[in-house]
Amino acid sequence: MKKGLLFVVSGPSGTGKGTVMKHLLETGEYFYSVSATTRAPRGEDKEGVTYYFVTRAQFEEKIAQGEMLEYAEYSGNYYGTPKFAVEKALAEGKNVILEIETKGALQVRKIMPEAVLIFILPPDIETLRARLTGRGTESAEVIETRMAQVQREVALLCEYDYAIVNENGKSEEAAKAIMGIAAAEKLRASRNAELKEKFL
Questions:
Q1: How far apart are CA 156 and CA 131, in angstroms?
Q2: What range defines the domain where residue 18 resides?
């Protein structure tokens, strides 16, 4: 069985990554790796579906043992991707997709250089602001903080392999673009070196 491919998707808040991911997962061709966190469960959170909920001591033990593919700390809580689940799915020939921020994506690249990094962008900065404002769930102060974060994230664009613009109302097309990338990556010569054996 051929090993699966690892895709890492990043992009600023408000780019519509969640909707694009939903389209991809509906195809049944991608395994979504659930993250681990030390924050307490909320509302409709489900263990093993929303997150794997662990204690701070457990998370730090996983870091010390090299069991985290990537991790970061926000507002006093750790968030990260357990390495075991990703490696197991890849070994089973499944394509794994991670939706993580830029810092985590670059951590993954160091540990698994073969990972394919995809950056999703909004059409322009005005559209992004309108999307964040239109949610009606965040204060003006939080929105401005997110807009400032956009500058830092987009500055890392060229660290990624591919960039996709998610136009308004066209998240399905963005998902299809990622599927096209997956198809091309499977045909990459370096991933098919065994074909030489038929001729040499």
A1: 22
A2: 6-33+94-198
